[in-house]
Design a protein that fits this description.
- It is a single chain.
- The protein has 5 helices and no strands.
- The chain is an all-alpha fold.
- The protein has a single domain, classed as Membrane associated eicosanoid/glutathione metabolism-like domain (Four Helix Bundle (Hemerythrin (Met), subunit A)), CATH 1.20.120.550.
- The radius of gyration is 19 Å and the shape is elongated.
């Protein structure tokens, strides 16, 4: 019985695993940044979160800084998770290791830059669009290759 990973280049899989872990750590960091922003702005969403701090605080759902962090984190979830799946399936198509390595790195760096320009050091467009588009294009390319391969 053969293993599905037998056909995957080991070095390429290491690259995939490394950048996936980096992206998971980045998503966890975005969650922590959201929490820190909530504390800094005293903008908590749940009554049980505000009651230990002060009886005068009320839940707040419209702080622009907290909402920016939340949107950036949600954008990660909407784009990184599909990338994980598509990139893994792409590895099963026996891609050129050099091209695949560059694609994986480009997608990961695109997501890192996206979070920075969206939520940490807010830059005007097209910074966010370009970084978002990088991962979208890579994921789309990999998805097309997978469709053609597995057709």
């Amino acid at each position: 019985m053969s293993n599905v990973l037998d056909d995957v280049d080991p070095e390429l899989f290491r690259t995939y695993a490394f950048w996936n872990v980096i992206l998971v750590v980045k998503m966890l960091a975005m969650s922590q940044l959201t929490s820190l922003t909530r504390f800094r702005k005293m903008a908590f969403a749940n009554p049980e979160d505000v009651s230990p701090l002060s009886r005068k605080l009320k839940p707040k759902f419209d702080d622009p800084d907290v909402e920016r962090m939340r949107r950036a984190h949600r954008n990660d979830l909407e784009n990184i998770l599909p990338f994980f799946v598509v990139a893994f399936l792409y590895l099963l198509t026996r891609p050129d290791p050099t091209l695949a390595t560059h694609l994986i790195r480009a997608a990961a760096i695109g997501r890192i830059v996206h979070s920075i320009v969206y939520a940490v050091i807010v830059l005007p467009q097209p910074a966010r669009l370009l970084s978002y588009g990088m991962t979208l294009l890579v994921t789309g390319f990999m998805a097309c290759k997978c469709i053609l391969h597995f057709l």
